[in-house]
Amino acid sequence: MDAAEQIAVMWQQVRVPVIVPLLRASVAVCLAMCVILFVEKVYMAVVITAVRLLGRRPERQWRWEPMREDDDPELGSAAYPMVLVQIPMYNEREVRTELSCTLSLAAAAMQCNDKSVTRRSLVTPYLICAAELQVYQLSIGAACGLSWPSDRIVIQVLDDSTDPVIKEMVQMECQRWARKGVNIKYEIRDNRRGYKAGALKEGMKHGYVRDCDFVAIFDADFQPEPNFLCRAMPFFIHNPEIALVQGRWRFVNADECLMTRMQEMSLDYHFKVEQEVGSSAYAFFGFNGTAGVWRISALNEAGGWKDRTTVEDMDLAVRASLKGWKFVYLGDLMVESVANKLLVLMQKVTLRKRIYVIYNFFFVRKIIGHILTSVFYCFVIPATVFVPEIEIPRWGYVYIPTIITLLNAVGTPR
Q: Which of 135, 134, 142, 133 is nearest to 86 (CA)?
């Protein structure tokens, strides 16, 4: 008996007693996960449709009043919260030409005309830079151009650059804005421990940060519009339970090629459906790591930035959510960009919210979604070709996957 015949005999011996039961069990588990994922996508579709039809905007869900000049003119700029704006940057050597107008627009809006908010606080823009070419100029310029009283905002540049030439250029750019009267701080550290999270953590230790109540974060290639703070801050001022206001990314080069278009499509569902549903349902959604504003007291209560993980944004969002803090997502608050352990005390959080965070976000989206894609479609279905005893129902490998794909595409119709 040759080797081929031996293999055929061995296959027949193990196929019925071993392979068939295992594969049948795998199909049953994968079909169950497929149904769970399908139910999740349908739930998302129903909620987002209701939000659209009912016009359920964040300004209607939460108390929100525009910052007007005639509320209390005696307070002047002292009525504005003090904000810390962080813009992390590291080793992005991309030259940006698409947003050349952003810097001039930002520079034209150096001072906010609004003079009234009911509480006193401070705002500081943070910029974490590392070997940026031209990108750092746009980012620093956009942060310096935020429409906010100049004495109520601090720009903090956290420079983790490894290129001494770029490091010097970033410092010179900070000095240039300082000569214009902008309260800008250029900070470096002796090491890059913890990378972005470590830099943000070190930045919060400076003495002047103690005067700040909020921190806005923009990565190196993100340029906020001048009115970003004037749109976001009223949610914090009138709703003390809100910890995070998250803006939306807008890719300026989405139509540049197929790859950038695919990036936009993959993230549009996340922004237009997942985050908006979470915000509209007063449920959990993750911090995107940029284009958002945090209440510093909430950040500190959640334990601050942790450099134990490379997903420090999600880590912080989960810890803050489990402390009972609320998040708001603003889909029309655009920020331009380029397409390129959680065991904590939960006394303040309801059982429903704990279940939602664990089941909906981690179990369905992060575990089932990935396992179903890799195991079911790449292994189980092809394996059934060699085991004719196993039959997968058509709804499991045609109808449900098709509907899920169409629902995912809703956020990007063009």
A: 142
User: How much is the pLDDT for 365?
Assistant: 67
pLDDT at 319: 92
φ, ψ of residue 37 to 5 degrees: the values are -65, -40
Catalytic residues: 160, 313
The residue type at 9:
V
**Nearest alpha-carbon partner for 224 in 145, 323, 155, 317:** 145
How far is residue 399's CA from residue 414's CA, in Å, rounded to a whole number? 23
Extract the residue ranges of the chain whose pLDDT is less than 70: 1, 68-76, 91-133, 339-354, 356-363, 365-366, 410-414
Amino acid present at 89 = M
Q: Is the whole-model pTM more than 0.85? A: no
Q: Which amino acid is at 378?
A: C
> What CA–CA distance (Å, rounded) separates 383 from 391?
11
Distance (Å, whole) CA 358 – CA 342:
11
- In sequence order, what are the residues at sequence separation of 6 or more whose Cβ sits closer than 8 angstroms to the Cβ of residue 188? 158, 159, 160, 167
Q: What is the pLDDT of residues 343-372, one digit of tens each?
A: 334 445 566 666 766 666 566 766 777 777
C-alpha–C-alpha distance, residues 167 and 129, integer Å = 8
C-alpha dist (Å) from residue 252 to 87, 213, 408: 18, 31, 22
Tell me the C-alpha distance between 286 and 76, whole Å. 35
Q: Give the dihedral sign, CA 104/108/109/110.
A: positive
For residue 257, how far is the Cα from the chain centroid? 24
DSSP 255-306: TSSHHHHHHHHHHHHIIIIIIHHHHHTT------SSSEEEEHHHHHHTT---
User: What pLDDT is stored for residue 297 in this prediction?
Assistant: 96
- Tell me the two tokens of residue 230: 């004037």
